[in-house]
Specification:
By secondary structure, the protein is mainly β. 0% of the residues lie in helices and 52% in strands. The protein has no helices and six strands. It has a six-stranded antiparallel beta barrel.
Length: 83
């Protein structure tokens, strides 16, 4: 009998879509995300909206968000709320 080790591994990809851009995320949490690499993303008309995508073992989920903090090269972390 094989005893389970208690550890599991999944293929996980995280993306942020804004305009025509697909940006890789390094981490996604409740109400915040961290870009894989630092960059500035400007708001259009004073408000920045986009979509988050998670792909876990080939199954993807996407949802629309509104960014609630600036995304600049000074910090890869930003906050958001669902729309």
């Amino acid at each position: 009998m094989i005893k389970p080790s208690g550890t599991f591994s999944a293929d996980v990809k995280l993306h942020f879509y804004v305009g025509e851009r697909q940006i890789e995320l390094g981490q996604l949490g409740p109400g915040f995300a961290i870009l894989r690499s630092a960059q500035t993303i400007d708001a259009c008309d004073g408000e920045l909206q986009g979509e988050l995508e998670t792909v876990i073992d080939g199954k993807n989920s996407r949802w629309k968000i509104r960014i609630t903090s600036p995304i600049t090269t000074a910090s890869k972390r930003f906050t958001f709320e669902a729309v």
